[in-house]
Design a protein that fits this description.
6-stranded antiparallel β-sheet; globular; 135 residues
Amino acid sequence: MAEFTHRRHITSVTQLGSVQLEQVRLCGTAYDDEDLPAERRLNQDAPDDEAVLYACELWDVVAADGTPLYEAWFYQSDSGSIFRAGTTEMVAQVIQCGLECEDPQRELELGTAMTRAGLLPPGDSEYERFASGVS
C-alpha cells in the first residue's frame, strides 16, 4: 500500500538535487508544452511570468515498508506530475485535480494513496473507486 509522505513546499532551485531539477523542467513541459529550465519555472521573483509554476509541493510516495516508490509534484493548484522515485520517468499526471495514468494497477495504487492523503477531491469522478481501493 503506497502512502504520500514528507510534503515540501518548493520555492527555489536551491532546495533540489539534479534529478529533481530535471523533474521540474518536465513538469513545466507537461503543463504548457514549453521546455524551460527549472530556474525559470521556480522564479518566485517573477510572479507575473506565466511560465512560473506556483504553489509547488513535492511529496514522497512510499511503500508500507518505507521504500521510496514515486516523487509526486503538485503545482498550479490543480496539476501535478508523478515520477518513479529518483528518476525522470513520468508515470502519471494530475490534470484539473484528476489522476491520469496509463497503467491501471499503478493508477489504483496512486489514486487510493491520493484519496487517503486528501489530495484527490471528493468531487472527482474516480474518488469513490479510489476510496474503496477496488479496481
